[in-house]
Amino acid sequence: MNIENVISALTLVINAKYPASKVANKEIKTADRPCFYIKFITEKDIQLAESYTQESISFDLLYFAESRYEGYLDLLDKRNELKALLKKPLKVGDKYLEIDEIEFNLNEDEYILDTLFNVNSAEYEEIESVDDNNQELMENLVIDKV
Q1: Residue 31 above 90 pLDDT?
Q2: For residue 34, what are the domain limits?
């Protein structure tokens, strides 16, 4: 799973839902409100079996309300909308990825909604079969019944 592709897919989804809000994925010094900022946090690979790997990427999605001085209801609305939006699988290329561990935090001093979540992918890699002539196939085995 490519981090840049996941960020691009998240940007497309957010732009489709909020066309009037800018979406940034590079460090922003001053936000042109209202806007979103997508920040990569961590990446973790878990080997579940010899041929099965799970990958999880953590992101921080910040929403800056239109006004720095008011907008608590706007933050609550965005929280509800993002909660519904992030429950849907994220299409990245030809795959659909699961989003989980969604956590929302409201910064009432600056009117920022901070959303933490993970994007997960599972990969199954076909194991090459071993051609060993010394091994009998299962269907050719004879089992003695006692």
Answers
A1: no
A2: 3-125
